[in-house]
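Input sequence (810 aa), recorded before submission:
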Amino acid sequence: NAAFNSHISLELKECEVDGAQLKQPYIGQNTIVGTKGFAAVIAHDAILAINKFEIKDNNGNITGYYDNNEFKNLSNGIIANKCNLFLENNKFENINADPAYANKYNGTAIFASDIDLTGLKPPGFYSLNQTGFGSDVSAGDPASFSNCDYGIVAEKMNVNSTNNNMNVIKAGYSVKGSGGREVYLADNFIQSNNDGIQLLFNDNAESLIVENNTIDFGYLHHGSSTNEIPIHGIIVMDNGTSSSEPQIINNTISSASINAVRSGITLNRASNYEVGGNDVDLHGAANEQGGIRAFGCNNIAINCNTVDGSAASLGPAPDLINRQAGIHVFGAGYSGNVGCNTVDQFHNGILFEGSANNQSFDITGNNFNTHHYGLHLTQSSRVGAQDRRGNLWNVDPVNTTTGENAIYEDPNSQGYPALNPIIVDAIVGTSPIWPNFVQPANWFQPPNPGTSGNFTCDSPIIIGDEFCDTYSPCPWPCNHTDAIDDEVIDGTLQNPPYTDETLYMLQSELYAALNRDSILLNSDSLLQAFYNNSQTEAFATFESVNEELLELYQLDETVYNSLQQNNTTIETLMNDIGTKLEQMQDETLSNADIVIQQNEVSALQGQLSSLINTNNNAVQLAQTSELLTTASLEITNNGAPATETIELNEQSINEVYLNTIAEGKYSFEPTEESTLLSIANQCPLSGGAAVFTARSLYFLIDPNMIYDDRNLCLQQGIILREQKDKTPNIFSVYPNPANNIVNVVYTLNENDNAKFVLYDNLGRQLFEKNLNNNNTQLQLDVSNINSGIYFYVIYVNKAQEYKGKIVIAR
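Predicted structure, token format:
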């Protein structure tokens, strides 16, 4: 094993460290020894170049290749604290936690942290650069990580990790606290038992990109029991304050687990994320909860993903899968879009719950395939008008009696869909656009006179992959008005379906949107008046706290560029040192030549030390400012006029965050743990966005915690309404196409009142006929109606029960 510190540079090549071959304890040894070695390398304040691959001569020509380093049968591989690491040509095998060692992240192949283990030194600006042997398993690329508990864990580090084959590990990556730094995870194959990639509290990372990874999660392996369950392909847990634009793009995520899978991609309190071009395939998972889930997120873009589920989830909704969805958005913040996704084989295709301030929220160009419910808005949803957004329902619901292509759970049957209307031509050209099964019937509406098409910015109509390939010219930006904003502004929003807490959240989100968008603020006098009148509200105080948090980790651009340039120079100097060390092995060198080489190496090491000190001093100055800002924010937060539970929740969560994560601490006092758990176990519709933040923070304590929002909300008097099964009525309409006569054959339950209503392709009612409960057939004369495509709805007890289209042709 190797242990060292004080800015020493290390080059390691062709080494094998086998922790199973331990020496016996020496006489008088009082430290605990496990059944395997503690770690191969332990480093503090150092630069590690464990990456020699090419053999070069004195002229720089490649003459051969070194064998790889191997670290195996250990409790840990490399433990690096406040180090720069350059890792290549390394294999980690059987790195599993030995309980004899109680160190942080025991069982990790590579652990790199800028949080000083002694607690004495402030953060610096360190980087982990690592690459494997390739990620093409079919081509035989060897595994960089095999049979390990954790692949790579990094805290407050710049991270660049690519081209790995992570073969049968518990979890691939856990990257935490990289605010003001860069994270790049790409071109990896990860076969994990639990999470493939964890991204935790990287709010305000200078850059965060996760792309082109293949994640196959849900495999049982060494030491695993059958009750150990996979969790997520990729999970993001944040605080909702990021000002950067993180990306999770072009990844392939799948699971064939027989156990419960939570989701392919989960984002909790994430901001500004682009989740695009991913292929999420959960068809082999028996109880998947969702393909892509976004809870309490702000300004998210979920675009151009393909999400496939399991056919086992398509039937009527038992409690287990009632909220299971291809894409699930719960409590979206002040903007976002869900566009051009293809979803298939889920109970719900795309499910919305909770409020979403929709100044720029769009549901656009999505393809709904086989589902029980295609597009599903719960009664608490608020996404605003969707004016000609180009969504397509390609097939009828899997169960046409209990299922719907599109359903809005409006408790008043005919009221609130007007606040979230879907506006689109029933037919574009010769193609029907309205789906056959919609509840309630008045949810889909024709465009205003003088407008037409299936996109606001038609010409041509762009849908599905065509849009995803071009990203232009439609559909963004396609602005639309919001009929509900006036009620949010003046506080007259009615209940049901919106609770008082929902009104607070909508006002808070609208205020945040106005505070961050001066163009929007100045576009309307009502918005300006609302903004000015809200300055004394608690949510205005909390927005000022969030606004300061946005700046907390952002370094001055000149300083940041200097830090990155210094890191590039550090890598160059390490390569130069490696070259000098190679040259010193030349047996023809004289003693005088060797001394010259040694002096040159020492000079290079001096430059390294100087650059690292420069970086650390710059970051330490920034941290001093951060601590002052944090102290000021605590005063501001404590002074907020919070009286209601939803306000007190946000105040309490801000206090915990400012005392921990904002100061680089990732553990909590018992009272803080109790506060987090208490708020995390509230219904988000009554407890507000702080509930999602509490869940992000509590993930650091118990990553396997599950929250049953349906029951949590029910306990707090809020019903997440479910569609109940009933004894179905039976309807049949024929012939289709029809000439002069249309027959309606039906059976009705006792005491049911029903009627048949026919509409033209503009949604205008042509006629209605009552269905007599004592009969089973109604014959309709349509000889006076022109040839064309028409739509019919059968209402039972004033609720839409059955619908479809019929062609009249002569």
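Checked by second reader. The CA atoms of residues 240 and 269 lie 5 Å apart.
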